[in-house]
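Follow-up to my post from last week.
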Amino acid sequence: METAQDTIQQTEAQAETSKKLFKGTGSQVLLNGLIEEGVTTIFGYPGGAIMPIYDALYDYADKLEHILVRHEQGGIHAAQGFARTSGKVGVCFATSGPGATNLVTGLADAQIDSTPLVVITGQVFAHLLGTDAFQETDVINITTPVTKWNYQVTDANEIQEVLAKAFYIAKSGRPGPVLIDITKNAQIQIEEFPEYIKCNHIRSYRPKPKVRVEYIEQAAELINAAKKPFVLFGQGVILGSAEEEFKAFIDKSGIPAAWTIMGEGAIPTSHPLNVGMLGMHGNYGPNVLTNEADVIIAIGMRFDDRVTGRLDKYAKQAKIVHLDIDPAEIDKNVKADVGVWGDCKETLPLLTKLVNENKHEDWLAVFKDYNQQEIDQVITPELYPEGEEITMGEVLRNINEICGGEAIIVTDVGQHQMVACRYAKFNNTRSNITSGGLGTMGFGLPAAIGAKYGAPDKTVIAIIGDGGFQMTPQELGTIMQFGAEVKILILNNRFLGMVRQWQQLFNDKRYSFVNITSPDFVALAKAYYIEAQMVNERENLRTALETMINHKGSYLLEVMVGRENNVFPMVPQGMSVSEIRLK
Amino acid sequence: MSTEDKIKYTEDTLDLDGKQEYTITVYAENRIGLLNRIAIIFSKRKINIESLNSSASEIDGIHRFNIVIHEGYEVVRKLARQIEKQIEVLKVYFNTNDEIIWQELALYKVSTDEIAEKVTVERLLRQYGASAVVIRKDYTVFAVTGHREETDALVKALEPYELIEFVRSARVAIIKDSAGFHEKLKEFEAEDPGEELVENEFLEKGGKIFTM
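User reply:
Got it. Predicted complex:
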């Protein structure tokens, strides 16, 4: 039987519940949810099918900053840039149909580079689904292969749970992009909504495997017995916020460590055990010595073909220890002798405990020898050129001297990207923002906008080629309108340089459609009220770079660089890493 | 079967091209779009699905897919990992034919006149383990449950007698060494799963995956 006390408690509980109930539209509850998830910045573009969400957004201007981009591809790349520098989930809005299809490149880029995003697209009314309605497109099926998860909401009552799941999935485990497609009827549907509850468990989803000490022990045994151990690290170290743990591991074990371009910056460039870059345009020693090491410890990297070169001649002599959070990556491209499943933030400290202190001086000396050869034959001529033409490398050297490794460098894709990754100095993690896996030209400018919002106190320099810049130049409009302080550095060689380099080396110099002309970039920037100048001569380069970096506000600097300079060293496609060419 | 035995078995039963039939069993949430998510994992790699069945499992609300492909061990292992990575997928097993009990159902429609004239129905029923589902004046429908070779054999036998229609279902398979999914599900529902869930073949306890 109910006592009076029970009745009072129940009434209080009811009152409590009704206080927590929120009556409003699906759009409002979506925006409330974003705020609950800590979102402050949204990159987006409105349209018919997402209008109710934008109508609600009108009243949230004090809590949610919306950056109106000029194209949805720009919006999603900006969200990627934001996520990469801030470590938070990037959020992007787009409308149905063309708005949604314009996101596909960014989704694919975020999927392959494990960038956490929550993307919201509007969709036609649920009763119109499948009728080929105006701006209807099958977004869920188009985006399935390029999302970690996606879901179509047709009822406002689903929004909170789906949004909570989306954030959890996007940022946990191996991060990735999540897309929620919301039909217009759900956006306008009025309901009483319960309190927003964050998601921290989905029964069919294991974000990270449980760490098993057995593998750590096996790995430590191999490492302790190794004479020539070699660490290869990737973005997993950064995504797992395990930079300190990683540093502790190499500091104690004394093992030389080389990075994939996605892992660059996880430890400072100047760290004595940082031996450089892996892969096609990576450093000489790290590539050659991959085929001489006796134990390779791969941490948070996935043995991409641009890193491994020819697989059947890759590190065949070495025992492979592979640490990764994604079980599907272990044994995918390179067979591991010991696969350590788990979050490297957890596995690395366990491993550090078990490995012996070591210096590996003789082995490090071998790296130094190779480095000296590379300095003499490649690096010095690139950074201190004697010819008349400006080289991309000397531009990077000047940036290093001016910024001292403190700047965030965002790159596009191509020769300038390889040069920037090779020569830029980084003191801090989350400072090298580039499109690694997908190689998306047009990524640089919009990603730099997002990068600046993600790290407002940092100098953000977008290094872009003349080709890539012409893929997404419309985002100058976003910079103009919102004043994002991005330093745009166009390295103009009047060619699609990387393709030209391959045509020179492998297609008998048959320069097929790589001769690209450009508009007057300075005039273009000025049309957007962005300060700009062009530099053609070495004597003006340093001052121009200083002007750009010290300028209050965004700035565009176009540097005319040598037309037919090549990026070396190079592992030609289909060759082994030890067959790397210095020229 | 331990991983080593499994690899040995695989080596012994390979086709000339190094491939054989594998049955992939997927336990998953029942969600719209998941079938597409799984199917594109195969089509992305240009791998043909020989047979695909989607059905209820022993647990209410948990779906079970049986997918048959003709591939090598390494490829199947990688595919299984990619499928298991999908958010709504709980668990993926892959087995060679000796590790499973499987059946396919086939239906055959034949002219009753033809059959009555030229061959005794009774003989067909006995020889192929067929059952007559419908017998009408104009046609008869037989059903056979069994392996591919068995259902194929009856197609051959009926060819001379005007086989009007033929259809075969996807494969359904039960894993011999499986204790079902009930216990596993409890672990999935727990926020901190036990070690069983994170099986790792590197521990050389790969056999556990199939014995449960």
